[in-house]
Write a structure and sequence with these properties.
This protein is an alpha/beta fold and about 400 residues long. The chain is built from eleven helices and 20 strands. Bound molecules: zinc ion. Zinc ion (ZN) binds near residues 346, 351 and 364.
Length: about 400
């Protein structure tokens, strides 16, 4: 347990020392935001829509499964999302692409996990979020929407939607104070100005949510484990009852993972490692064990070696359908205000596109494909595209411009 957890969940005499720092920090954050609002600091608007996904607390539990859900939602509509993030605390600041073969020390475990899970969705990291976004779009001209992970306080980059994810577990909102007196990175009042608040779990705090932006529920399904070497081989908590179990997590995942195992009635010996720990085979050598349990995100960090008795808990977000409609409506509105051929590229050859005769298709001349625009959203998928078989569809010179 971190020392801060003793005073982040209650008010203690120590708070008389912490409050002045928290107030000062809160004022700086608010002033910075005000300066951007008043255009005293300049902002950059990208050619593609940007969705900020962040947590308002130090603990960002639930945010990664939500991003994975959002990526799938956007892909499902034929969009080609990209993710920009700060990545690891140690990164050099220069924009870099994260791939499944990136070094965990250089890019951070979370971005590596996102790159692994979001196949076909580029993940780029760096300190300067504007530069990261521009580099990503340069390398992936077919990317037509960006998710700005952890971007709530990065006002230099304009956003079309701000979504905050909150976990209602006891550790999350805590005493409702800004750091260092509490676990909040910004005042709860900030939730009045965002576009959507996504909550995981049942309310167990006493803060007034009346003025917050619309709240949408998210459930994280996580009660079936699968084997590390064979994902089709599954096991339920009941089947684990008579086994000798060790559970492993890094500090970032330990609290929810261990709490969750207890809630499933799983009696395990718990082992916590530092955040972003690089797991080695020796971390898994226990003399008296039948089964080792890890979350999917942590287990990904063991992929360079084999553990025969490792079982994995996948985590999948299920989100209120109303949020799905809200997001898609906003994207549709945004695209309607843009000239799509200026921001879309062919997903196959990455080349330019032109409108079809009735502007309900985007056509790639070199691939002879017409991508449909369905209710304002361009569906940039080869299997949804129409082949241009008719010579009459070849554009005349004036149609090309
Ligand atoms: Zn093409």
């Amino acid at each position: 347990m971190k020392l801060s957890e003793f005073y982040w969940h209650r008010i203690t005499p120590l708070h008389f020392l912490l409050w002045p720092i928290s107030i000062l920090y809160g004022v700086i954050i608010s002033l910075k935001r005000l300066c951007y609002r008043l255009d005293l600091f300049s902002t950059i608007t990208l050619s593609v829509p940007v969705i900020v996904v962040d947590s308002i607390t130090v603990d960002d539990k639930g945010k990664t499964p939500f991003i994975l859900w959002l990526v799938e939602l956007l892909k499902g509509y034929g969009l080609r999302p990209g993710i920009i993030s700060r990545g690891s605390n140690d990164n050099t600041g220069t924009p870099i692409a994260v791939t499944t073969s990136s070094d965990q020390d250089a890019v951070g475990g979370k971005s590596l996990w996102l790159a692994h899970r979001c196949a076909g969705c580029p993940v780029w990291i760096g300190d300067d979020r504007v530069a990261v976004a521009e580099e990503l779009l340069k390398a992936h001209p077919d990317c037509n929407i960006l998710i700005n992970d952890d971007g709530l306080q990065y006002h230099q980059l304009e956003r079309d939607l701000e979504i905050v994810v909150i976990d209602y577990c006891e550790q999350n909102i805590g005493n409702g104070q800004i750091i260092p007196a509490g676990p909040l990175r910004e005042s709860l009042n900030r939730l009045q100005d965002v576009d959507a608040v996504v909550v995981n779990g049942k309310i167990n705090h006493k803060f007034d949510t009346e003025e917050w932006a619309s709240i949408y529920d998210m459930n994280l399904t996580r009660d079936i484990f699968h084997h590390n070497l064979d994902p089709r081989n599954c096991i339920t908590p009941t089947e684990l009852s008579s086994r000798r179990i060790h559970a492993i997590a890094d500090l970032d995942n330990a609290q929810w993972f261990f709490d969750h195992l207890l809630s499933l009635g799983i009696n395990a010996k718990f082992h916590t490692f530092a955040d972003n720990h690089k797991f080695e085979k020796k971390d898994f050598q226990f003399p008296d064990t039948d089964i080792i349990l890890m979350s999917e995100e942590d287990a990904f960090k063991t992929r360079s070696f084999t553990i025969n008795n490792l079982w994995i808990l996948p985590v999948e977000a299920q989100v209120d359908g109303a949020l799905r409609e809200y997001i898609i409506k906003n994207i549709r509105d945004k695209f309607q205000s843009l000239k799509l051929i200026d921001i879309m590229a062919c997903p196959l050859c990455k080349g330019p596109l032109r409108y079809g005769k009735f502007k309900d298709e985007l056509i790639c001349q070199s691939d002879q494909l017409a991508f449909p625009i369905i209710r304002g959203i361009p569906v940039m998928q080869k299997d949804k595209a129409r082949e241009l078989s008719n010579k009459n569809e070849t554009p005349s010179k004036h149609e090309l411009y």
